[in-house]
Amino acid sequence: METNLILEGFKFMGLGMGTVFLFLIILIISMNLLSMIVHRFFPEPHQNPDAPVKEQDNTKVIAAITATITHHRQG
User: Fold this and answer.
1) How far apart are CA 75 and CA 66, in angstroms?
2) N- to C-terminal Cα distance for the chain?
3) What pLDDT, in 10s, does the model give residues 11-37?
4) Would you tell me how many other CB atoms lie within 10 Å of the CB of residue 50?
5) Of 24, 42, 23, which Cα lies nearest the Cα of 34?
6) How far is the C-alpha of 22 from the C-alpha of 31, rounded, in Å?
């Protein structure tokens, strides 16, 4: 009885690649399903485009950055 090892190798390769491909398809479908469920029950809050945008007071942030740079340059 003579077995063709190359043919057997291709069978195992096809089986392995098919298993991985099937796993990835199931993973993608389940992730899309989970995404739809999350977006349905926990929707993103929408901002009103007509609402005025608040100007932030960045003076404390600028002072902290300036103090850090000064401290770094002094050693």
Assistant:
1) 15
2) 82
3) 999 999 999 999 999 999 999 999 999
4) 5
5) 42
6) 14
